[in-house]
Amino acid sequence: MTTSFAMQSIILGSPVKLSQSRNGLNQFVPSCYLPRLHRSSHLRVKCMAEEGEKLDKSSTPLTDSAATVPKPTPAPFAKAKPSTNFSDIFSFSGPAPERINGRLAMIGFVAAIGVELANGADLSAQLSNGGLLWFLGSSALLTLASLIPLFQGVTVESKSDGIMSADAEIWNGRFAMLGLVALAFTEYVKGAGLFQV
């Protein structure tokens, strides 16, 4: 019975004083086993609806002090300034490598098909008859023209809109790279130009 009384008192969180134990001594069980919970009249719980949910109009406001607290306004997102560091621009996921290769491939594919249609010369003949110098010169010029805005902090996305978007340029460059490889492979297997019979 004494143990039952002590356990109930500990669960309720109040100090327990046992009158006598088996050996006849008074023993006290401290109340530090469970903290005493005091009810505070200053504690208020406020529930806010998620964005897009409607509040229940039948609920009553808590107090005037809760109504006077101004709502914090979210800070606007600051756009991160693009890096002009050489290693960031030429990193694997940087803005320069795929974009410059795509631009070179677009010009190279159109030039290769145009010269082949005009002269009938395949890709290897075009490169051996002075086309290699034209390729190197146009590659250097186009690479320099593409890098100058990147080192000044201008992004392609900030200058693109409508049909001429940055994503469209990337995809066109990828297709042009695939087209140049397919053109060279087809002419190698065929042994002649693409349009020669």
Automatic annotation (TrEMBL):
Residues 54-74 are annotated as: Disordered. GO terms for cellular component: chloroplast thylakoid membrane; photosystem II. Its main location: membrane. It is a multi-pass membrane protein. The keyword Chaperone does not apply. The chain crosses the membrane at residues 131-151, 171-189. The keyword Transmembrane helix applies. This is Early light-induced protein. It comes from Solanum verrucosum.
